[in-house]
Amino acid sequence: MKLLLLPQCLRKTPGCKAKEKGSFFICVGCGKCQIKKIKELAIKKKYKVLILKGGKIIPELLKKYKPDEVFGIACDVEGKDGIAFCKRAKIKKIKFLPLLKDGCSNTRIKFKDFIRLLEK
């Protein structure tokens, strides 16, 4: 089982049409941000994609899904925390892609790097 964990800050705000559900956002595929394309490519590679409101839920997700692989996209601070959670949970394969800039809204990734890591 493979998880792709996305930060809510990749959403285009204001204007994002994603629906809030507990600790997550559910992308409706409007295409205003990179999430739609990220999600489509990841699903083709058999990832379960979750858009997190924050990284503190990661330990709970690792217990629930028991993934063999976790691919996280985040700022450096959240990424370091996520990697530590995964190591403690003895996740076999951990991938991390840092955001191009820190900030809690309208962030982006370098898509070429995402595809390279997705293929690994």
Structure, described:
This protein has one domain. It has four helices and six strands. It has helices at residues 35-44, 58-65, 76-88, 111-119, and strands at 2-7, 19-21, 24-26, 47-52, 69-74, 93-98. The protein has a six-stranded mixed sheet with strand order 2-3-4-1-5-6, sandwiched between helices. Strand 2 (19-21) and strand 3 (24-26) form a beta hairpin. The longest helix has 13 residues, at 76-88. The protein is globular and about 40 Å long. The mean pLDDT is 95.
Structural class: alpha/beta
Order of helices and strands: EEEHEHEHEH
Largest sheet: 6 strands, mixed
Low-pLDDT sequence parts: none
Strands side by side in the biggest sheet: 2-3-4-1-5-6
Oligomeric state as shown: single chain
Silhouette? globular
Number of strands: 6
Domain module tally: 1
Number of helices: 4
Helix content: 25-40%
Bin the strand percentage: 25-35%
List keywords for this structure.
120 residues, alpha/beta, six-stranded mixed β-sheet, 6 strands
Secondary structure elements and their pairing?
Elements: E1 2-7, E2 19-21, E3 24-26, H1 35-44, E4 47-52, H2 58-65, E5 69-74, H3 76-88, E6 93-98, H4 111-119
Parallel strand pairs: 1-4, 1-5, 5-6
Antiparallel strand pairs: 2-3, 3-4
